[in-house]
Amino acid sequence: MTQTDQLNPAPLDQNAAARRTTVKLVGGAVLLTGCAPMMQPMMKADMPAAAPPASTAAATLAAFPAVGSTVFLQQAGKGVVIARIEAAQAGAATSGDLHLIALSDRCTHLGCGVQAAASGSGYSCPCHGSAFTLTGDVVNGPAARPLDRLAIRIEGQNVFVG
Ligand code: FES
Questions:
Q1: What rounded mean pLDDT belongs to the chain?
Q2: CATH 3.40.50.620 is held by the domain 59-161
Q3: Domain residue ranges in the chain
Q4: How many of the other CB atoms lie within 10 Å of CB of 104?
Q5: In what residue span(s) does the Rieske domain sit (predicted)?
């Protein structure tokens, strides 16, 4: 190699440069595609979990003999309360004269689980004393908003939540 060759190197083969770029792009795409299934759980971690539609009945209609009857249960790791209410309303499930609603059992103050109120109607929170009506509206704070409503449906004698 002469001194002139070192100062003026041979021009790059443009086809070779294009091939290297193509290989890098394809390799990157393959790497991303391969990692996508592993990254999916990480991406979902920050998203609120939606309750999966129930495939098994949460209760049967027989569990609600009168207005005010409630059933507390766990579904997909979340506390749920189903209550028989006086009349049909938005979000309620109806079968004849029986109307049911489903609520999250999480108090909207700081998230403690509510219980059936000692008064016999509605719910109370053991943590700081919030009280809610049978339909989840706030009677006493510190909770400032109603219990969260959940989807509910009746199929035959079975009640499904979610
Ligand atoms: S968490 Fe229910 S009143 Fe505070």
A1: 77
A2: no
A3: 3-44, 59-161
A4: 19
A5: 68-161
